[in-house]
Amino acid sequence: MQPEDMRRDLPITNQFIYLDNAATTPVPSPIIDATIEYFEEYCANVERGAYSIAAKASQVCDAAREEVARRLLRCDVEEFIFTRNQTQAANHVAYALEHPFLNRWDTGFKFAPPLVDWSPENKIVTTLLEHHSNFLPWLRLAKHVKAQFETITPTVEGRLLPEMFAEAVDENTKFVAFQHASNAMGTKHDVPAIIRAIKSANPNCLVFIDGAQGAGHMSLDVKALGCDFYSFSGHKGPLGPPGTGGLFVREELLRRMAPSEVGGGMISSVTADDYMLRGDHRARRWDAGTPNIIGLIALGASVKYLNRIGVERVAEHEHKLTKYLLDGMRDIPNLIVYGPKDDMTWKVGAVCFNVKGWGSYDVSLALDSQWKILTRAGHHCCQPLMRILDVLDLYNGNVRASFHYFNLVEEVDTLLEALKTLAG
Fold first, then answer.
1. Contact, 346 vs 340, CB < 8 A?
2. What value, to the nearest 5°, has the Cα angle with vertex 160 and ends 156 and 166?
């Protein structure tokens, strides 16, 4: 599949130059067709229906889980929790770190030992580069469990380095959360090396990776990364609809992890005095009530579509467009570019910038109204970072152009010409 082939599945590309893929990628028509097929041909609830179309709905959802777990994350399906986005995934983990697992055992209805036995000297570590969804849950958790909350400051170019974590993590550090790639600087990080530094400093420290800007944009093997948790949103790189996403949890932890909700579908037995959570598919303990059937079907279809392209080809294409844009920006006066500009090793398909004398929202509005170029503007849910960059008051954040496989070099040329006009 070529970029032009993908564009035929995205009618929005006939009207706009869509460069806001780090926020939401348009959904290709075959994924939409898969949801229409559900409504028209087998619209039924999953798992508990004995009739034919209910069985088909269950089979399609099961196949979708398998597709996403094995082909997007390369984990076992029993280690994959379906979520509505990365934010919910992080909050699932934060809940489990605060609340011990309650279940019926041979010895009665009681709590299992907690994932972390918190004490005041314990630390939770994250970074000032994080999206709010990978910052606020841990800040709140630290307050709830009365642990210390520490942050790591990235480099000027927005990089996180292994030595930063080696210095921050000690025997009292119980949990570390950081991103795979930045939505506000366009940097990616050497996740395996950082995790090795963390585990070397404290083998018992749990590590959570926010993969919202990683999944679908680069090849993944979450087990090879060495993390304990990896989360993503389906509506970005994976090409799925909003309201979908997932969470990988290492199996040993999943067995002792408390679900944040209880209800139908995630239990095997209930009495007037207790309950037993299902043990046949532990990840479905997070499917209390009717799941987002449409979302799960669509996410499975989107991963199939993504693999028709090839994730490696997506990464190569985004890399080419990003380098082309950065090279073209060098000769434009009054343009401030954030993140790596020369070394593309740690760069993803997102370029963040400001135009001197313009607010970020004004630039984005002008690009839309005059050239039909759609970009993102503002603090990108990264206010601590924007304060470090000192752009929150001056520019109200920055402007971001972000790519996917359907974007073209010609579209980058139009953006560069537009920026020359605005910055001149």
1. yes
2. 125
Answer yes or no: are the C-beta atoms of 81 and 70 closer than 8 Å: no
In this prediction, residue 49 has a pLDDT band, given cuts at 50, 70 and 90, of confident
- If DSSP states are collapsed to H, E and C, what string results for 199-258? HHHCCCCEEEEECCCCECCECCCHHHHCCCEEEEECCCCCCCCCCCEEEEECHHHHCCCC
- Residues 298-307: tens digit of each pLDDT: 999 999 999 9
What average pLDDT score do residues 363-389 get?
Answer: 97
Query: What backbone torsions phi and psi does residue 136 show, to the nearest 5 degrees?
Result: -60, -40
381 is catalytic: yes
Phi-psi region of 186 (alpha: psi -120 to 50; beta: other; left: phi over 0): left
Tens digits of residue pLDDT in 101-114: 999 999 999 999 99
59/295 Cα distance (integer angstroms): 15
Q: Which residues are bridge partners to 332 per DSSP?
A: none
Q: Which of 205, 227, 352, 381 is catalytic?
A: 381
Q: Compute the Cα dihedral for 191, 196, 197, 203 and give only its sign.
A: positive
Full set of structural domains in the chain with CATH? 3-19+310-423 (3.90.1150.10), 76-289 (3.40.640.10)
Residue 214 C-alpha from the chain's centroid:
7
- Which residues, 6 or more positions from 167, have their beta carbon under 8 angstroms from its beta carbon? none
68 CB-near residues (< 8 Å, 6+ apart): 80, 82, 238, 246, 299, 300, 303
pTM: 0.97
